Amino acid sequence: MLNTKLLTDITHWASGSGLEIVLLITGAILLTRIANWLRDKITHRIDANAQATDSLVRSEESKHRHALAQVFTWALLVVIYSATTVSVAVRIGIPITSLVAPAAVVAVALGFGAQRIVQDILAGFFIIAERQYGYGDLIRLSAPNSPDPSIGTVEDVTLRVTSVRTVDGELVITPNGQITQVTNLSRDWARAVIDVPVPAAMDVNQVNETLRLIGEDAYKEPDLRRLLLDPPTVMGVQSIDVDQFRVRLVARTLPGKQFDVGRILRARVATVFRSEGIRLPPALEASEPTSGGG
Q1: 187-198, pLDDT tens digit by residue?
Q2: What count of other Cβ atoms lies within 10 Å of the Cβ of residue 52?
Q3: Which of 75, 129, 141, 291 pairs as cysteine with 190 (C-beta 3.0–4.6 A)?
Q4: Residue 177 and residue 122: Cα distance in Å, rounded?
Q5: Angle at 156 between CA 150 and CA 159, to 5 degrees
Q6: In the chain, what are the helix, strand and coil shares in percent, each to the nearest 5?
Q7: Measured between alpha carbons, how far is 96 from 82 in angstroms, rounded to an integer?
């Protein structure tokens, strides 16, 4: 008799609350897949539109939309999982209303232990809202526990972490709250800076004129002109040593293209100087290209 009653209760629960729990979990899984599918579809369309344009770099708007798609999907999944957990708990028989007071105490305790997570989420919110950087940006991240800053391309931005792919192929994942400084190397415009070491016996005016002609010739080439915003400028002597001095050549470029332009200009300087008999060190030492805005 007892077994029959127990079996009847289980059957009744399974056909009622049990079935609802299965449907809730199934619905959460389906909503998760739909959300991920929509995110992929939106990001693929953004990428396709960026590739279809004639621009060599992504627009700030497309990078921001890409980041927003990632963040909105992440937030939506959090809501789905939270709502599903509460609904399942109610149907299992856990008294949610009576757990409000204990939950408040636990929340306070967790708040002290989860300060870093809250800090990460708040920092991620301001990163997205202020458009500090987005998907596809070339950035340099500085973190307290990292001796050297990470330089690479942003592959993912959520409210909690930022993922950067370095030139070596490494994926660096940094909590947003741990980022102390960000240098965006692909915002608005960038600058390639080439410091050319020249023997002290050379005529400064001759070197300046040669570099000016190199810049003008580079700006006339169609392939290179697509990367340059204006003709490279000779800034003059930047430092003087016992046996040499350094002359600086500066070129404003499209965002993220300063490294390519710097390599091309260094190769041109080495070729022209060699043809004119101006001796150079084995490698042209150039200061790191910088980014700018405005």
Answers
A1: 778 888 888 888
A2: 8
A3: 291
A4: 8
A5: 100
A6: 55, 20, 25
A7: 13
Comparing C-alpha atoms, which of 132, 136, 115, 172 is closest to residue 62? 136
Chain-centroid distance of CA 71 in Å reads 13
Residue carrying structure tokens 């599903």: 84
Residue that the structure tokens 């016992």 belong to: 242
Q: What is the pLDDT of residues 87-106, one digit of tens each?
A: 888 777 777 666 666 666 66
Q: What is the CA radius of gyration of the chain?
A: 29
Q: Which domains does the chain have, with CATH numbers?
A: 2-94 (no CATH), 189-292 (3.30.70.100)
Q: Which residues lie below 8 Å from residue 12, measured CB to CB, with a gap of 6+?
A: none
Vertex 293: Cα angle to 120 and 188 (nearest 5): 85
Report how far residue 190's alpha carbon sits from residue 54's, in angstroms, rounded to the nearest whole number.
19
Reading phi first (left if > 0) and then psi (alpha if -120 to 50, else beta), residue 144 is in alpha
Neighbour-count burial for 249-279, b at 16+ CB within 10 Å, e otherwise: bbbbbbbbbbbebbebbbebbbeebeeeebe
